[in-house]
Specification:
Layout: H1 4-25, E1 37-41, E2 47-52, E3 60-62, E4 96-99, E5 102-108, E6 115-121, E7 124-127, H2 155-159, H3 163-166, E8 187-188, H4 192-205, H5 212-216, E9 251-259, E10 268-275, E11 281-287, E12 297-298
Antiparallel strand pairs: 1-2, 1-3, 4-5, 5-6, 6-7, 8-12, 9-10, 10-11
Length: about 300
Amino acid sequence: MITRYHKLALTASLVLAMVLTFSCSSDDDGDGNEPSYNYCITADNTCLTGPFTASTCTGQPSNSCPYSNSSSSVTGGGSSSSSVGNLCAGFDPNAEIEHYGKNKKQICDSRDGKKYVYVTIGEQVWMAENLNYNASRSRCRDSDPNCTLGRLYDWATAMSIDAAKYNGCEVWGGSDVKHRGICPAGWHLPSNAEWDVLVNYVDAHGGSSNTVRDNLKATSGWCTEMYLCSHNNGTDDYGFATLPEASNELYAFWWTSSDVTDGTGDCKAYFRKLQAYDLYVSMDKKSKSSYYSVRCVKG
């Protein structure tokens, strides 16, 4: 016989079980902290590398990235949606095309089928043109609506990390060594140290010009107005083929994978710039929400 007392006891037990179940579901390890996830998958199917919690992920937290453009070395899944079909079918990686007066091989980005020429400079292999991958938050230049000069990216997008969190003043804290970021599989966003290797190699080996600047600039596309430009088109000895940010301009900018961590950055990351009046490819700091180009390095 079930008495009123038994009913009350049973009800109390059910309520306690529901409370315990709810408490445990929000804390998998029972230590009072939210469970941690390896990835945050955004609305455009970008896998951002964590760790994330349910409250810090702006999309779907997950311990795996289900898209084919990710790998263990991606640190961010590369970016954007997975490819449908083989967009690089029939591509010949050994074929060469002429690019600013030099024959160069290409790679094919399996995410969208775009192809990029590349050159070997010393022991490094660099893209010889800017990345043009249409990731969420990227854009074309106002003066180049078709993105013929490549796309522009804020720092977090170039890194393929959470822009809502790391485009502000929070230091990312990850390694800048071979961080793939938004680059194609097998390539990565160069660090400050890797840019130094490039500049030092060109400086040591020289070329037709006595400046690193001119040896890395394209032979056309730069400002040629006599009274505005003291230094015009380059000699492009190494095939790097730097073009200015816009026609008849004096400079080019690229993001690095190196965050400012010494307390002097004021919410900035490092970028590299080649200017018509500089002798080298210099380093500077800029707000992470700024939009710059990306050159990728193999490896």
